[in-house]
Amino acid sequence: MNYYFLFCQDELLLTSGGDVPLRDEPPIRLEAWQHLHHLPDLNGHACFTARLDTPVLGDEWQMVPLRASFDVLPASLYNMAGKAREILYWDQTTKFCGVCGAPMKLHTDISKRCTNCGKEVWPALATAIIVAVTRHDNQEILLVQSNKFKKDYLGLVAGFVETGETLEECLHREVWEETHIKVKNIRYFASQPWPYPCGLMVGFIAEYDSGEVQLQRSELNKGGWYSRDNMPAIPGEVSLARHLIDHWLAQ
Hints:
Blueprint: E1 2-8, E2 11-15, E3 22-23, E4 37-42, E5 45-51, E6 61-65, H1 75-93, E7 104-108, E8 111-114, E9 120-121, E10 126-135, E11 140-146, E12 157-160, H2 167-179, E13 182-194, E14 199-210, E15 220-227, H3 240-250
Parallel strand pairs: 1-5, 10-14
Antiparallel strand pairs: 1-2, 1-3, 2-6, 4-5, 7-8, 8-9, 10-11, 10-12, 11-15, 13-14
């Protein structure tokens, strides 16, 4: 049997019991233009993904936003769902060649080739850093609220890596631009695929070096130093930001 990761925009089709459909054939009828993309195998089962034109209705099914599926699915299935969503996003945004404008055609499961000039493309990742900055012998952590947050919680300084920039250079730049402080003793923590839509988050821990916090108001609503006994609301467990914060809280 096969796993089928079927998406309508950002919503994943799950059974009413909260499972990814595991069937011999697609759980619903797919049209000719709804291409089934092959994904890596998982738990001994083949995996496929496709884009749906409309949500699936009925007592047997439910449509769940990808991010919310983190609270429903086992980690391995959630991670595969994220990969599936990224493949569908890549397929949708690479229909035509960026060199000559001719149609692109699938060459392998994760590559396309131009039907005219032969240009090949693969799924691209937008790499970003995220950093937990601490001070006073690890007693305080720097938390900020991006103006892109939809809920009233505080997270960590983060930002996209620019062309020609190392991860460490990006970290120094983003911390300086967003808070006007300098950091030292940078240490790698972990990385996380972030399929919203095609990101890779690289997490670090760093120590405060110098400067006074001056927030970049074009990017941040609020922020400052927090100790373990006066923590604000923080991001959900799906995020690397939360993993970094929890690591600090546990020390």
